Amino acid sequence: MRPSSLVVVANRLPLDDNIAPDGACEWRRSPGGLASALHAILQQTPATWVGWSGAIGPSPKLPSIGSLRLRPVALTEQEQSGYYEGFANSTLWPLYHDAVQQPVFQREWWETYRAVNQRFAEAAAEVAGRHAAVWVQDYHLQLVPQMLRELRPDLLIGFFMHVPFPPPELFMQLPRRIELLVGMLGADLVGFQREQAGHNLAQLAQKLLGAEATDDAITVGGRTVRTGAFPVSIDVAEMRALAARPDVVGQARQLRHDLGESKRILLSVDRLDYTKGIEHRLTAYRELLRDGHVKVRDTVLVQVAVPSREGVDSYRDLRDRIEGEVGRINGEYGRVGEPAIHYLNQRFDRALLAALYQVADVMVVTPLRDGMNLVAKEFVAAREDESGALVLSEFAGAAAELSAAFLVNPHDLDDLKQTLLRAMEADPADLSARMRAMRAHLAEHDIMAWARAYLTALDHTGRLARRLPRTG
Ligand code: G6P
């Protein structure tokens, strides 16, 4: 493979699950934000993406996507279990999300996590040209920056954490906390979604490594690592264009008809994950039905729960609980031909999502903790009509930017119920003022602005940022 001057390293390659017999592949729009976000930038930028294809065993030979070359990292079944399902998604993921689910730590997972990180670092070192920039993504690969620095001191190394980075009280629980910290600090620039995460890292580096730290720099072992907040976003232009497509508008009309012309439609779209607060939301909705504040004849909730990490016990258990609760609510409050909740546990086509966003009267995004939440931003981008209410958790990174939403503490059931009612009953003029403010913010802060801000901070010169496509 020819050396690249920009290399992105992320756990997942943005590939379709099914690679056609002729080897052709398509962008797979991951249900998570990371691949969606990078997709917008990289398909038009000469670069190499190092990542896992999502399948077990040797990787097939992958063709390039546009100007983007793909360098697969193969995982064995044991590696998928110890590195991806184990240390990344059963230890770090719950701990970084306020431990809303008890983190699990098994000693043998650590060795696998370390070994797989080493392989990602070696793959990146192999494809990176001299003095190239390597941009490492997320909690799966926290050891890669330092490993890469040891292999290739000539490289410019960036690290971006898409998920929250927790306060010291939580991080201190982690066995191997020092190695994890040293791993990230191998980068030249560590980026987060929110400023608080940078303060958390600075405090930890002071406490555990005796580093000197300011608001945006950490000096340890004679080297200075810069830190900063770069809130990730979406391809606003792409979502607007999708929402305006005649077939999508037609699909939205059909959905509105199918769900009930005069009904108030509440919509939630999440990966099926315990951080997303789906159970709290269902409880609030059940109580609103029970109290008679919401009636099935005039309101319906559509809950899309995209399957995710199904090999992990806690995700399987969550699915059982959610499906039990949806069944109970529909059993108790539904009428013939009129369920209280439409529940869809499937991957969703983006065009259908864009249609759903347009028919929602109230978009309900209430995670217990979320690095950013791009669904909230997609909903706003899709609402050319400047109507519709967004109920948004204070614990989503997006709340810092979309402050004109109806902000809510999803842990507080009464607040959740009252906020849902306020959003359902809001005055249309108030709703459009809020929507206009959120759309104005998004227009200025799209995915390209994010990548440009990060890459400019990484290399100072603007050389990397200039290689990005001009528009989203
Ligand atoms: C979050 C993470 C991403 C991850 C995505 C989907 O957004 O920050 O790194 O790719 O979830 O999860 P999955 O485990 O399917 O990759």
TrEMBL record:
It comes from the Bacteria. InterPro entries: Glyco_trans_20. PANTHER family: BCDNA.GH08860 (PTHR10788:SF106), TREHALOSE-6-PHOSPHATE SYNTHASE (PTHR10788). This is Trehalose-6-phosphate synthase. It holds the Pfam family Glyco_transf_20. Belongs to the glycosyltransferase 20 family. Signal peptide: none annotated.
